[in-house]
Design brief:
The complex is a heterodimer of chains A (225) and B (315). By secondary structure, chain A is mainly α. Chain A has helices at 3-36, 39-70, 74-107, 115-141, 144-169, 177-209. In chain A, helix 1 (3-36) packs antiparallel against helix 4 (115-141) and helix 4 (115-141) packs antiparallel against helix 5 (144-169). Classes of the chains: A mainly alpha (225), B alpha/beta (315).
């Protein structure tokens, strides 16, 4: 029963999964553009961000229509309310990718990343991308066990973010103020990106269990509760 | 009216042991506003032990209640409480026994040939089905409003004085009429035509008249069996607003097929399901699946069958 409604709900879920894919690719290319000073690639990321914004608006509109016309309750209602929130987070993640790309463009033809920090930046970027990839599979499979893993994955990004700061604030930092500001911002972008990804995954836990999870996965509800 | 008088409160005649609250306030101009004080609750001290004050007590305790029509079960093993001054909604598909169960609370199943109620229903801790309980007094305390408005083919005024007359209540009829119409949010619409036939009213007005009529005999509980299913959305909204008003002073139990209505008006919701008794002839009987706060039932119900039903994926 309610086949059309179910198809609409599935459609929203698929769009969210698709958004995680776009966001992951955008951040991956933004990182390449940043490290390799690739102006064209940075432009691509900024254009893609506009497409991500469009998908967000489409999801909002679909949710609004279903709220107005289907009177969803219980799980259906949670799917729709969380989709609005998840789409907003993913849209913001797209913006953060574009911010990284803008830093790359700003320092072109030089790379904005000093050699000492290339490894840390790359590590942070990969960890953040891994989070959004996992978030996509959490949404697609409504997999709350994987959602729990993301809390620990996010701790890795936070640790790298601290490492980055330690380097920037060291007495021996040789590059002056401007690169320090760039790296502070870039570090912050990856850290926020990862955080939004984790927030999206938490919404899935709410959809499945009906209980909004806290920061501590050991306190999270299980499917049976 | 020939009412036995015993020590059990439910068996006493209302005009003797039970003070009639309608004239206890003796206010010349009763107010419609709940904020200015419920007119019927202005009890003098010592009266109305059946309506305790602030605490939300249990009005009905149903324990392992089953109903059979002849040998066929209609509803089996229902245990739940109905709380005071709350709106409890019964929802569920056709054949789940929710209306049958509602009728248990004022013993109107007694009037159906072959109907047999087993288990126990307590009304303020007295067995509602005890031998010496007067079913007429039960139905005065526990009023009922039906699916289709069923005013008597009489004037609006006479519809409202009928109950007090047959119950021999010593009240000022004009005051009963005005107070009950005000409480039912109908006074302003009909005050100039009280002598007109009740059938001249619209369906929604007729239903509010039936609610007003239920109030004239000073009940504690109002049972509503699909009170809005014959009404348009505006009349439905009137009745729903009215229910919220009445909730301050009355306990309301409503059976509804409209789940959004249950979600909008009720404090607690009970979901019943119809189980197939025999595949051969598709006979069904009802069972309670769960009862809980309406906010919980419609956001995160415990039982998957409830979720499937309220989200329209039943069957």
């Amino acid at each position: 029963m309610r086949a059309t409604f179910q198809a609409d709900l599935d459609g929203i879920r698929n769009q969210l999964v698709m958004m995680t894919g776009h966001v992951e690719l955008a951040m991956s290319r933004a990182t390449t553009a940043l490290l390799d000073a690739d102006y064209t690639l940075a432009d691509w990321v900024i254009d893609t961000d506009r497409e991500i914004d469009t998908i967000k608006i489409e999801i909002d509109d679909a949710c609004f229509q279903l709220l107005a016309r289907q009177q969803p309750v219980a799980t259906d209602l949670r799917v729709i309310v969380t989709a609005l929130s998840m789409a907003a987070d993913l849209e913001r993640m797209g913006d953060l990718g574009a911010h990284v790309a803008k830093v790359a463009k700003l320092r072109f033809p030089e790379s904005a990343v000093p050699p000492e920090l290339r490894a840390t930046v790359l590590e942070m970027a990969e960890a953040a991308q891994a989070i959004v990839a996992k978030t996509g599979s959490v949404i697609a499979g409504q997999d709350i066990e994987r959602a729990k893993e993301l809390e620990a994955d996010d701790d890795i990004v936070d640790r790298l973010h601290k490492d980055l700061f330690r380097t920037l604030l060291a007495e021996s930092w040789p590059y002056g103020v401007e690169p320090a500001i760039d790296m502070t911002l870039v570090g912050r972008y990856y850290e926020r990106f990862a955080d939004h990804g984790v927030r999206v995954a938490r919404q899935v836990v709410y959809v499945v269990t009906g209980v909004m999870p806290t920061r501590r996965p050991q306190e999270w509800p299980t499917e049976e509760t | 009216m020939d009412q036995r008088i015993t020590s059990e409160p439910l068996t006493t005649a209302p005009s003797t042991a039970q003070p009639i609250r309608i004239d206890a306030g003796s206010s010349a101009t009763p107010s419609t506003s709940a904020a200015s004080g419920p007119v019927w609750s202005q009890d003098s001290a010592g009266s109305g032990s059946d309506r305790p004050g602030a605490s939300k007590g249990v009005v009905f305790g149903a324990n392992d209640v089953s109903v059979h029509y002849g040998s066929a079960p209609a509803l089996v093993n229902v245990t739940l409480d109905i709380r005071e001054r709350e709106i409890t909604a019964f929802i569920g598909p056709s054949g789940c026994g929710k209306s049958t169960f509602l009728r248990c609370f004022n013993r109107t199943n007694d009037l159906i040939p072959g109907a047999k109620v087993s288990g126990r229903i307590d009304y303020h801790a007295q067995n509602l089905y005890a031998k010496d309980v007067d079913a007429v007094e039960v139905r005065r305390r526990i009023g009922m409003v039906f699916q289709k408005p069923n005013p008597f083919p009489k004037s609006i005024y006479d519809n409202l004085t009928f109950g007090p007359k047959v119950n021999r209540m010593k009240v000022d009829f004009d005051e009963v009429v005005e107070t009950s119409l005000r409480r039912a949010a109908l006074w302003d619409e009909v005050k100039g035509k009280l002598k007109q036939n009740a059938y001249s009213l619209s369906g929604g007005q007729q239903q509010r008249l039936c609610i007003a009529r239920a109030l004239t005999v000073d009940p504690e509980v109002i049972l509503m069996d699909e009170p809005c299913s014959a009404l348009d959305p505006i009349a439905t909204a009137h009745i729903e607003d009215l229910m919220r008003e009445l909730e301050h002073d009355y306990t309301i139990v409503i059976v509804t097929h409209n789940m959004q209505q249950a979600a909008r008006v009720s404090d607690r919701t009970a979901f019943f399901t119809a189980e197939i008794e025999s595949e051969d002839d598709d006979r069904r009987f009802g069972r309670l699946v769960e009862i809980g706060d309406t906010s919980k039932i419609f956001s995160n119900p415990t039982d998957k069958r409830t979720e499937d039903y309220i989200s329209g994926r039943f069957g």
